[in-house]
Amino acid sequence: MIDAILKMSIARRWIVMALVLFVAGIGVWNYQRLPIDAVPDITNVQVQINTAAPGYSPLEVEQRITYPVETAISGLPHIEYTRSLSRYGLSQVTVIFQDGTDLYFARNLVNERLQQVRGQLPEGIDAEMGPIATGLGEIFQYTVHAAADARQADGRPYDATALRTLQDWVIRPQLRHVPGVTEVNTIGGFEKQFHVTPDPAKLLAYGLTFDSIVKALEVNNGNVGAGYIERNGEQYLIRAPGQLSDLTAIEGVIVAHRDGLPITVRDIAEVSYGKQLRTGAATRDGEEAVLGTAVMLVGENSRTVSKAIADKLAAVNKTLPQGVSADPVYDRTVLVERTIQTVQKNLFEGAILVIVVLLLMLGNGWAALLTAAVIPISMLMLMTSMVQTKVSANLMSLGALDFGLIVDGAVIIVENCIVLLAARQHHLGRLLTTSERLETVYRATREVFTPSLVSVLVVILVNLPILALTGVEGKMFRPMAMTVIMALLAALVLSLTFVPAAVALLLRGRIQEKENRAIAAVKRIYAPVLATAIHLRVAFVAGAVLLVLACGWLASRMGSEFIPSLDEGDLAVQALRIPGTSLSQSLEMQFQIEKAVMKVPEVRTFFSRVGTAEVATDPMPPNISDGYVMLKDHKDWPDPKKPKAEVVAQIEQALEGLPGNAYEISQPIQLRFNELISGVRSDLGIKVYGDDLDELLKTGNAIAKLLNGIQGAEGVKVEQAAGLPVLSIEANRAALYRYGLNMRDVQDVLAAATGGAEAGLLFEGDKRFSLVVRLPEIQRSNLDALGRLPIALPAGGYVPMGEIATLSIAPGPNQISRENGKRRLVVSANVRDRDLGSFVAEAREVIDANIELPPGYWLAYGGTFEQLQSASERLGLLVPVTLGMIFALLLLTFGSAKDAALVFSGVPLALTGGVIALWLRDIPLSITAGVGFITLSGVAVLTGVILVSAIREQLDRGVDIDSAIREGAMLRLRPILMVALVAALGFLPMALNTSTGAEVQRPLATVVIGGIISATLLTLLVLPGLYRMAWRPSREALNSTATLQESST
Amino acid sequence: MNTRIPVASSLLLAVVLAVSGCGSSEPAAPVAATNDHGNAEGGHAEGEGEESEEGRVHLTPAQIEAAGIGLATVGPASIRETLSVYGSIAPNAERVRDVSARFAGVISSVDKKIGDAVRQGETLATVESNESLRTYAVTAPLAGVITERSANAGEQTGDRKLFTVADLSTVWVELSLFPRDRARVQVGQPVRVRSADSGLSADGRVVYVAPFGSSASQTLTARVQLANPERRWAPGLYVSADVVLSESPAPLTIRNEAIQIMEGQSSIFVEEEPGEFVPYPVQLGRSDGEVTEILRGLQAGQRYATVNSFILKAQMGAGSAEHGH
């Protein structure tokens, strides 16, 4: 088949070129559609169901909202698991679907069930699904603020309420319509409300209750349409306006009549603009702020969308009142562009280097050019396949691309074509006829196609285990493996079609096989060295084996990390305070943090979210704040050369001075991912399932104590399920009975008094504001005043709250977590200086022996050790299979186990260079480095195959083994060096670059460059010797195979 | 990423090992990729950890200043314990007189209207006696205000009441005491009375506590007599009142904002060494709006944290604070 394709591409070369052009065109088009982001999206397929339940404590939220929602969701197809969180005023159920489930399908399923559950939820409470977005969704953030001298229409300065109103009714509605935006989330400021705050004493005096005010307001605040009448041929619409419009109107509402006199709201209550009871706030640079976050729809192109938002925001800014502005504070475009620039720069410089090398070594401009043309064409083909396979372009997916590797196949083919064409011209002493030329091109291509096919197949094979990774690692690295495979396949197809066709078209004239000087010089040096290497083969091979062993040992000593983290340029500072810290206290502490950090000169701005935003995508309690420290451009720093780590240290030092906070410093995207994935993030998580919260906590603490006793345990933590101070106002039933009250009467009064009772809406244009009846702030927060709160008796008169109820402050549940429909408490631990597997085994044993669980309680073990286990199992199975397949492939190619093994032996030898390079540059092992090793094994096999097939060709001609090895090696010196050089140089910019994103690619490039150097050296020096040992005169063959196997299996 | 999976190394090792055929151990000590702050990671497990660090907070002077922590000394103070109750103004029942005609007859003239102030002995009306046909004056029995009048010229007086005169120079405040508070209110305690809109206030004393209560409202009435020279306390008004239950010196007191609840126990952060705070569990006694008596747990002269003592509590718990998803 390959023959047929080759022949056809050479014969129909014009058609091939046209097709290539067409495919490239499609690639250009697809490039526009390719989603581009800085990092791969590692969010799982999840649907969040958020239910705001103002006033509900964690227990009530769980009982009345979370449980029904969870029950309704259970049993949906493709669910992996559900988890839920019940906090004050918020229930969040997260449904995680199996990877690969269509998100819209999943949302549909969830939505259907939500419709059914709506009836079971308490009145006025509605479950909503979170925005259709992933962890990368928060692409744009801005704050709204006013200049100090800006005044509202009524002459008052802009306060947090006024700014929030602008955000809610002017800015947000416009940004929501930007294509690709699924939600604009708001946090900070106060929603404007109209507050009616009755004085309990006055209520008593008139014998009125909260309820009577609420009722009076409700029935005096409405417009009614009353149809129409016809008169003299005209039609008149009838309406009866009656809506309350402002504070004065509210004051005038009549609540009751006493002795024929109307008692209005004014007589018993204060009416004013009030502040909502908020669950979250925002700050910027040490001041209260209003923060908007635009969330991108899943699958959109973040660069396009955030640009569109920025443009829209600029337009919106023009429509804002004088002195008020909405400032972008976080724009993903910046990071994406910086990252993509880095990638582009790396790729571009790599390509240039490759072309230069080709030009120098081939000595033929056309040949170099057409080889280099493989780079853009295969890239464009890659774009098309990325769009088709929904792989987004980012640092990781494009990070492993090496143009050297891509052109390797083409290089070998073109090189051989030149050699053969030149030889034939030389032989015939004239230019070739077309048919002769075509025939030569075909033969030259066919001759070396097998090695290049084999090398590509090998790289693809070694990438297969990566495709089998699941979970976060899978999401991170599968795209990388896929792009590499796709790019190589594209290159393979091109070298089968485009390259021979282009060679046939372009290499017409006189081809001179110039041995350029560099090559000649190398050959001169190589010849004696090769002779020595063959002569001292045993020493060389033994040295190589020793080297492999030494590097294996070195690798086991090296530090390792998951992946090097992308430097996002900005920082996220999460400040954590003890549960129960109030929002205003948290805000105060946050102001101080921001002011302290702003003193660091490199900081441009610092904004934070405290507590939960309006759309509860991240259900943070008020004691936690997510802060974003945006740094200035390096050029604006006092010392532009200062390393970022120093700035971070300075910020840490500033934070150190502020007591009462614990900090976690990370980066914005990183932080968001952690929040979203947020399974158990420690090495070992022991989940205790059961009913009773106290029992769970008791068991959890007991387990924590045991874990602390096990060697290697570190940072053992029990989930903070308790510790929220709760004021319980428990009515005494006997007292209720004595006064003829119902429990509900008491609860309603309390809820209205402290939480506030909604009494309708007020409209200002299309803005709408709540009308709330609530106790005055001074009395709300005063426990004595609450105790004195009068409760009207059915027979007239009153009784103070404290008389019929006990007020007690006690710590209550802070949050209730559930997983798969059961209450759950997590005890987590990290493991240091010990092998994770044995630690888990010991922990299990100790816990089994010492913890006695009550009936109906059970334990589950999770954490990253689970992932590690499953990943190790997969890899443990797949890596040998893959290696077997590579061996089989080589076996098929050579038809000789010995030759296959010889080529194979190049792989461990190549790895040594990679390990040494990492060690020299002090880079820890990581998956990215691992991918480098994979690429490396492909290159090692490729050079091995080239050499071995050359030697075999010589042997086939009947040359004796020693000269066959020598001839073959000398003959293939140039292609081997070229392949190695282009592959290494292609990665050189990547290894040396220091701009944004370079840190992720650096290990990979370092490994490849180091490895290629060692692989090439070893291929050229050790392989000939090995070959000689393997194929010594036949009577000793048996022995040598044994030696070989020892070193290669 | 926080997830620390040495997959990379396993992968690499798997390749290396499978190829070179020699065994080796797992790579040790994977390093977290993030530069997480030590404090947040190395938190204390509940009740575990280094004993010396447990249970105390150390702050530098700069930190104390940044946190705005105030300091005070445990010492004596006067505690004024009050009880807030509601009630209404009633006329002083001892100073209300119903006026009727001594001799039945026809009212010949009425001199005073409702609301008129009268002196003692001032003529309210003149009545012509049916029997004697002599005209005599009906006079005010005490100085005060006419609060009722049911007499018009030409009417027969009969036995009925013609006027009510109330002396409003003093009024009674009828306070409702609920069962819980009954025992604490005694005759003689000073009381501050405020009108519902807080426009008026006056001081008086409890003059009477009713010995029997109302079964409907389960309340007792306590009575306060108020001077009302300007007649501003109009009977019928609702008022609130603070009864001073006791006002006495206490030897050990602390300011209220110093009280923090640690593990369900009221505690005070005492500065043992400069910058070294330790929470002392205490037993609280009487309290008013500002200070609280310490029954047990502290000694006079100890320095303790007042304002922003919560920061100290927060700092103690900071190690175990976590995101808690």
Task: Please provide a written account of the structure.
The complex is a heterodimer of chains A (1049) and B (325). Chain A is α+β, with helices and mostly antiparallel strands. Chain A is built from 37 helices and 30 strands. In chain A, strands 1, 2, 3, 4, 20, 21, 28, 29 and 30 form a nine-stranded antiparallel sheet that branches. The longest helix of chain A has 34 residues, at 434-467. Chain A is elongated. The model of chain A is unreliable at 1034-1049 (pLDDT under 50). With 325 residues, chain B is mostly beta strands. Chain B has five helices and 21 strands. In chain B, the strands form five sheets. Chain B has a six-stranded antiparallel β-barrel with strand order 3-11-14-13-12-15. A four-stranded antiparallel sheet of chain B has the order 1-18-17-16, with helices on one face. In chain B, strands 4-10-9-6 form a four-stranded antiparallel sheet, with no helix packed on it. The interface between A and B is large, with 127 and 86 residues.
Structural class of chain A: alpha+beta
> What structural category characterises the helix and strand content of chain B?
mainly beta
Say how many strands of chain B there are. Answer: 21
Number of distinct helices of chain A:
37
Kindly state the mean pLDDT of chain A as a whole number?
A: 84
Order of helices and strands of chain B: HHEHEEEEEEEEEEHEEEEEEEEEEH
Overall 3D shape of chain A: elongated
Q: Mean pLDDT of chain B, rounded to whole units? A: 78
- The low-confidence parts of chain B are 1-52
Rg of chain A, Cα atoms, Å? 37 Å
Fraction of helical residues of chain A: 55-70%
**Strand order of the biggest β-sheet of chain B:** 3-11-14-13-12-15
Q: In total, how many beta strands of chain A?
A: 30
DSSP helix fraction of chain B: 10-25%
Q: Percent of residues of chain B in beta strands?
A: 35-45%
Globally, the shape of chain B reads rod-shaped
Query: pLDDT under 50 segments of chain A (min length 5)?
Result: 1034-1049
